Amino acid sequence: MDVIAGRVQRVMETVADAALKSGRRPEAVRLMAVSKLVDAGRIRQALAAGVDCLGENRVQEAQSKKARLAGLDFEYHLIGPLQSNKVNRAVATFDWIQTVDRLDLARRIDRSAARLGKTVSVLIEVNIGREPQKAGVAEEELEELAGQLVDLDSISVQGLMAIPPFWEDGEAVRPYFRKLRQCFDRLASLRLPKVHMRVLSMGMSHDYSVAIEEGSSMVRVGTAIFGRRPPA
User: Fold this and answer.
1) E strands of the chain, at which residues?
2) pLDDT class of 232 with cuts at 50, 70, 90
3) Residues 6 or more apart from 21 whose CB is under 8 A from it?
4) How many Cβ atoms are within 10 Å of 3's Cβ, its own excluded?
5) d(CA 198, CA 204)
6) What three-state secondary structure class fits 123?
7) Rg (alpha carbons) of the chain, rounded to whole number
8) What string of DSSP letters covers 73-105?
9) 175-183 — which CB contacts under 8 Å span 24+ positions?
10) How far does the chain reach from its first CA to its final CA, in angstroms?
11) What percent of the chain is predicted at pLDDT more than 70?
């Protein structure tokens, strides 16, 4: 077994254990391999090991890799901030956009998707730690934004995502995961039309087991699969 395949197996085992600990089936939690700054050859190894979902931070890098991974079956997610001038390329490249945090961006995605005749699945990004340097809608503005998105026909709201404050100790992040789960449940209880609330995307390499215990249904794991990457 090669190194990446071994890492994928270990991560999947940890995901399964955390899911069972939280009273859910292992298949209720999806593993995304974050392939930022990872070459296509190593990505192919992860896909061969059972990964079926990739996450990228930058549109241009993702476009280039997608061409080199042609013919392989995987779902492609944008998990980095999306600038307005890159919306068309992002919509053409990705299946999901996880970082919708304002109405004008959602409208641009909707118009671009309509022109391409596709529907883009999106998550609303929440700035759960209220960090000024991070994107995301404020917790108290989440319901208003979600209500505005129901009028857009070419995007499909599937849930929430967040990047909480970074702590090496995953336990320190638990309160933020719990708060995001509460936001998720509250929004789901409104039963807004076309807001499906199926995915709660939270947890990364250092804290994904804690995130799963707190209700995550999608974890975004890069370093634990591909190793440490050079600075961007």
Assistant:
1) 30-34, 53-56, 75-78, 96-100, 120-125, 155-161, 195-201, 218-221
2) low
3) 212, 213
4) 12
5) 19
6) strand
7) 17
8) --EEEE-S---GGGHHHHHHH-SEEEEE-SHHH
9) 176/128, 176/129, 177/202, 177/203, 177/207, 177/210, 177/211, 177/214, 177/215, 177/216, 178/214, 179/128, 179/139, 180/126, 180/128, 181/214, 181/215, 183/126, 183/128, 183/139, 183/142
10) 29
11) 98
One-letter amino acid for residue 165 of the chain: P
Q: Give the chain's domains with CATH numbers.
A: 3-226 (3.20.20.10)
Rounded to 5 degrees, φ, ψ at 54 are: -120, 145
Q: How many residues does the chain have?
A: 232
* Both tokens assigned to 43: 């990505």
Nearest to 110 by CA among 88, 125, 131: 88
CB crowding 121-151: b at 16 or more within 10 Å, else e: bbbbbbbbbeeeebbbbebeebbebbeebee
Token pair for 193: 């039309």
Q: Which helix (H) or strand (E) holds 9?
A: helix 3-21
Name the percent of the chain lying above pLDDT 90.
94
Residue 165: count of CB within 10 angstroms of its CB? 13
- Distance, CA of 174 to CA of 203 (rounded, Å): 10
Burial 18-52 (b: 16+ CB within 10 A, else e): bbeeeebeeeebbbbbbbbebeeebbebbbebebe
